[in-house]
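Bench log, entry 3. Co-assembly request; chain sequences pasted below exactly as received.
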Amino acid sequence: MSELTVAQRAAGAEIAIDRAPYFPRRKKMITGRSIAVLVFLSICALFFAVPLYVVVVTSFKTMAQIREGAIFAPPSMWTLEAWDYAWNQACSGINCNGLKVGFWNSVAILFPSLVLSIALSMVTGYALALWNVRWAGPFLFLLFICAFVPFQIIMFPLISMTSTLKVYGSIWGVALVHSVLSMPVLTLIFRNYYKDVPQEILSAAIMDSGSFWRIFFEIIVPMSGNILIVILILQITSVWNDYLIGVTFGGFNAQPMTVNLANLITISTGTVAYNQNMAAALLTAIPPLVIYFLVGKLFVQGITAGAIKG
Amino acid sequence: MALRWSRLSPQLALTPALAVTAVAFVGAIGWTIYLSFTRSRRLPEYTIDWSEWGRQYSRLFRDDAWMISLRNLITLGLGSALAIVFGFVLAAMIDKEKRGESLFRTVFLYPLAVSLIVTGAAWRWMFNPDMGIENFLHQIGLTGLNFSWLAHADTAMYGIILASVWQSSGFYMALMLAGLKSINSEIWSAAKLDGVPLWRLYIEIVIPMMKFTFITCAILLSLGVIKAYDVIVAMTNGGPGQSTYVPAYFTIQALSSSGNLGYASAAAVMMLVITAVVFLPLVLLTAWQQRRRAEAVK
Amino acid sequence: MSRKLLTGLAAGLMLGTASTGAMATDLVIYHSWSAPPEVAALNVLRAGLEEKGHSWTDIAIPHDTGSNVNLMSLVTGGQPPNVFMESNPGVYRDLAGMGLGLPLTQWFEENNVVENLPTSVAAAISVDGEIVKVPTALHIDGMVYYNMEVAEAAGVDPTAWTSFEDMFADFETIRAAGYDPVAVGSQPFQVGYLMHALTAAVAGPDVYSAIYGSEVDPAALDDPAFRQTLETLRLFANEAGPAAQNRPWNETTNEVISGRALMQVHGDWMKGEWLAADKVPGTDFGCMQIPGGKAVVVTVDAWGLLGGVPEDVQQAELDFASVVVDPEVQGAFAAEKGSTPVRLDAPADSLDACSQEVLEILGDPAHQVQNPHNTADADWQDSIWDVVFNFWSDPNMTVDDAIAQMKENYDTILG
Amino acid sequence: MPRVSFEHITKTYGHLTVLDDLNLAIEDGDFLVLLGPSGCGKTTLLNLLAGLLDVTDGRIVIGDRDVTDLDPKDRGLAMVFQSYALYPTKTVRGNLKFGLVSSKLPADEIERRVAWAAKLLQIEPLLDRKPAQLSGGQRQRVAIGRALVKNVGVFLFDEPLSNLDAKLRTEMRMEIKRLHDELNHTVVYVTHDQIEAMTMATKIAVMNAGVIQQFGTPDEIYERPANLFVAGFIGSPAMNLRKAKLSLANGRTEAIFGSGIRLDVSDYDFSARPEDGAEIIAGLRPEHFGTPDGSVEGAAGVFNVPVQYAERTGPDASAYFRFEDELLALRIDPAIASALAPGQAVSVGFLRGKANLFDARTGQRM
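Structure output for the full assembly:
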């Protein structure tokens, strides 16, 4: 719907431009209010952008310049040294192979986490929303409560459980814990979204096929574009940015990048090398940032399309 | 009634989730509750001395750090609520003033992509009195200004609030933007015809219409606040003193530094109780609301 | 360079025969060290271990990243490391209870290690009468390290101080010269260490043992000397500016190295930072014990070995232990880390002016007490840290408040 | 052959009983319309037949198979939904094929059927479009096509025309009627629109409050409504229903209204012997009146009533008169309608033999 109006507006604007030379018409005035709003928004944008700006310029500075203390000044000499150090040489304990080790761990954790958590919660949400299961109501309520359970309360038992399953301290263990912990919230989001699939479409599909899985793969999954974008973004950022689960369940082979980063920031070579810290922080933040800058628009669209609601 | 596959397959499909819930949540919570009655230290101990089963809890309520944690939880909750207000204001402005919509949206949203560990590093550096903003302000002559909030017990929480508002406002803005877009566009025209000033329209019509969006935001925010941990580690590590302790941090601290599993479990259980106290009304309200909506449809 | 080569050679020769038949084993080594001198010291051990044909898998979780839970998580999670840096006797008791303890008394005797250890070290590595730890470094928790250049510029002579009164009396002079008298870091760990070092120095070994020992006597909390300790701590806290908040110890050390502050009172691992900055003990910086101190707190960093493992793994763990306690390795290790060797027979050329000072102090058994991590209940010890850090951070908190809180904690935790 | 019968069907939701011991049977090739106001249970009945809901008690038989416990797809049915329920992510072709692929038909047979249905419904050019690119009428055709390709004996329609505009609705009505005439399937069609029912059905079941009020051909339903509900529900403007008393004096049977006006119903085909003085309700269809102020010769009764207002709907017109504090509706010639002035009193006769009489106590036809 809104797409159409955007397109219409765009079309309208084009016509107006075409005609402008012949029919000079009163331009839409920028009102005082518009200016005030734009100024306010710009100031807010500044507030939001400043930390990123500071981090970026700092990561390209030399320590000598940082010590001068001009936090907002651009680098007098751009250097990639700090980046190189953070990626290739930063130490985590005795190993000085840089953040790249943790980066690949994070990648390795990310994919199984995404597949497991999305597969589990998508199917569950679909079954709860569209199929008539007698105990769906109580189960839904239980999930709702689970969504609010703080991690701390189940942390210790989960350690024992992953240990029993022999996955503690492995990529799979971390991915499994991520999937388990995110399952209630993701399920609720999927369920809310699927609740809006017209009952008649499901009825039609039941009459046509009757197969739970065929309907899921052929009808429901193709309809899940909006919600999948939102879930993917949420889940990628939360898994990638997680620290506590990684440090608790990563053992000694599967520590994600955030743990390396925290180690790096804590390890200091006499005086803190802020440029290295900031470069490391940026390196850690780049993957989710890229995703946001690329598909942030779809994220808002997905939410607008009903991905998250009360 | 005959057994039908169409009836069975959804139930089978729900089994994994049910098993996960039963084991990882219900079972684990039960386990933790049990541990909170024991005197477990570094390792679990399964004997309960019934004459003093509540000792961990009574200690908790005499522990100043726990009281600080609770107080900070409220402070953080109230402070972070600014993120919702801020998010709404931003969303309303972006929605009305279409110019630069995508640019502003991206800028407001990006902090969400950044982990709190990174956020903490950035903000701590900006709060650093020698090299951060304070130094900058002093250099340009504003020597009276004090920006080293994290260094003082009475202002450290504000630093944390600032960082978390910075981080989460964009998310609430996105939710609000979605809520605003779902409002019938005729309302704006109607208000224009009636000559209703914009601010009254927002307060009397738009905000009440968006109450579910607000409730959703409030739920998500409270969740974030109760679970707040990373931001504390990244910004202050609980200091100065114990002035920025929050329950989640307290719990981990009790487990790791004090090596007291029983005590940590009791704190965790109290976190659950807090969660229940905060959310049960909300959960019931939502359930009731959904039922009413469902009935309205019939 | 040659020293390292020699170390490796010696280690290789000494145990080469023993290990030729042994299988190469990968040891998982857990520690919390992260500062560059600490890492350099670990690399000395790694070189020694690799000489013996084993490999080193490192798992490091630095202090104060909120995850000290890790060792016990690893154990609970069924992935216990083979070697772990741990002082807390409770952990050893837990491990023994789980069948994962490895008693070392016999091994120590067979290898003639015990007779070469200072008494305080020998005491620190036993739990319930059984040796279970492998000592790796010896430190004194409260030493005064000062920048000699700054001392000269400010016109003060730290060696002339015989008491805290003398020391604080000079602060005005130092400040007038444009230097901070003392650099502190407002971090629970630094304040906690400063507190127990001050307790030993100001209140003496008896009060110290009554509070930080394995048997706690709450009456000691009311001892006037303990009150005086807290008052002294307050004087240090007054020196903490906003910049000190959350400042790691080694950054704090750098305040002194770079000449912004005169001195730092902290564990003598500070020396590693000085050496890393190419400063020479006795020339660029001076080290001394707390003026007028009644006792010093000795920290023995030690490794625990995992028991209940296959024969070949256990042999590898013992190989690791033999590397750690090897006199040559000890010398090299201490030189990198800035510690004092745990063996009295470590090569003399590895001892700098500060280490000699430390060994001299350790000559008097009555003048030393143990780091509370070796003896005290972790919960109780942690509660003291909480109280003193709150006391440190809140100028309005009185000594009475602090003592009252400690008593209450005692009743809750140990009462 | 697919004869469809409902036997003792009961459906309850918790304490709420929607259908209670309902029985209904139609023959092969019948076009059954379930007609009733919303909430009457007609859609529930349809969903029970489709298998989308489970019966609480009773039996559903299609042909000679008891389908009560079968899955929807195994019942040999096809259904067209109110909102068309097209799969939004599939093309028209994909929509048509979806139900066939799972029935494991050979590929060329599937293609053949899709082509046949597309030709029949004239949607061949649309086959590769997505539903979002279709107009309402086109979607409707696709929805019907999706049912047709399944080649089953029974078709179910759930208010399929209610989302179309008036013109399209008429067109599609004809279309569905034509398809039924051509293919001669059994159809069960749910609607609340009596025009659809009257034009398409071979059998109508009028439902209210979960009960079938009358089951019969359209003519039977219109001419001889079984009770007050059916009488009032069918017809537009609705039948005028007025209280009256029966009088059996003078060898004549007359209905006497409150105002004294008499209506001769001597030729009425009473199902039971009427009693003198019985309370009745007389049903007078608007089209069974004579011309206002025209000849009243041979009329069963004459009403002298003031005009309230008249309205024209193009070819037709209705006039409303004030009669005993209520409105009396008449269908009249549009030309006359314009001549009627409000307040003007006219006399109008009611045709002999056209009245419907109902027992005032039971509401049943007498």
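Residues 63-259 of chain B form a domain with the MetI-like fold fold (CATH 1.10.3720.10). Chain B has a mean pLDDT of 82.
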